Amino acid sequence: MTLKYFLFLFLVITGFNDTYAQKFENLAQTPPMGWNSWNKFACDINEELIKEAADEMVSSGMKNAGYEYIVIDDCWHGERDENGFIHANKEKFPSGMKALVDYVHSKGLKFGIYSDAGWQTCGGKPGSRGREFQDAQTYAKWGVDYLKYDWCNTESLKAEGAYLTMRDALYEAGRPIVFSICEWGDSQPWEWAEDIGHLWRTTGDIYPCWDCEEDHGDWSSWGVLRILDMQEGLRKYAGPGHWNDPDMMEVGNGMSVSEDRAHFTMWAMLAAPLIAGNDLGNMSEETVNILTNKEVIAIDQDTLGVQGFKYSSEDGLETWFKPLAGGNWAVTFLNRADTEHEINFNWKDHMVKDPDFDYAVDFNAETYSIRDLWKHKNLKNTQSPFKAVVPPHDVITLRLSKK
Fold first, then answer.
1. What is the mean pLDDT of residues 358-384?
2. For 373, which of 42, 323, 368, 397 could close a Cys bridge (C-beta 3.0–4.6 Å)?
3. Is the pTM of the predicted complex or chain greater than 0.70?
4. In the CATH hierarchy, which fold is given to the domain comprising 309-402?
């Protein structure tokens, strides 16, 4: 008998052939909901800020509305010790990361952390390249529940391989952690990441404006409508446990109330992760009302897990449909224009077919009751045309329920 045969026999007897790394299953069965520090605070973060965010997530009603992750983004890092293990910055986080994680958990919330596949993070802090398994062990020891993994300073690396390495490291560490892939859609992660991560960024960074490009020289960040348009063709790749991520939300960060409402609604129609990025301790009543609209959140969190699709577009007015569980539908009229739009939508004139999945509705064959999800008001059913006026940079969102 050869050495190779003995090795094979050993693997069979010990069961090693049945143990292999994979991503953690049964996580993120609906799009993750939470808050991330970057959009508002960037590197200006510390222990008290994160604790206050956790407190505000509870007191504002966001936790009750379904938000659960407090994600600390870049610049929490201190140095690596003599054995290569990463530690939190002692000045910003004097109690240490484990104590902060425990505090967030004590609020009934989950904790997310940030790292990068390169030598350094985007903020110039120690990255995880070459230290993936050490870092995964550290996060598991701290009690981390979510990892956002960025893509700066990754010279000569291939994205799929780099993210596969961290996926395996997380799995070996043994603690179920939602894995958020953040390589900005450059290598089409929707084509390869379903078995690696639970969500993947589809675009570059978002910017708090309605329709703009913010030029940073060798890269750009994008307004809400630009990001929305970049999602075309991607919906067929997403579903429970593997979501397209059009980036964190900018609700409450300087756009108008109508623009915030439209932004939030369209992320829900996309079945996108709902990760707030504002100052939770200084929210207007309007911002709270948008972020905690449970009826719109239910569209995002629908168990069917199917993204909405653009059904029609004319003169800046778009009509979107989203299949929901139980044969129900969400419909959003999005006014991209600078002037108001009149809507006169005769349901019976439309046979709606999902372009990617086997969902369809014939309003001549079935009647649906209608509820306005922003006015929280029941309307007439689909036997009559829907007539309304949608203001500029705003939405009207309806839930159609089988009668």
1. 97
2. 397
3. yes
4. Immunoglobulin-like (2.60.40)
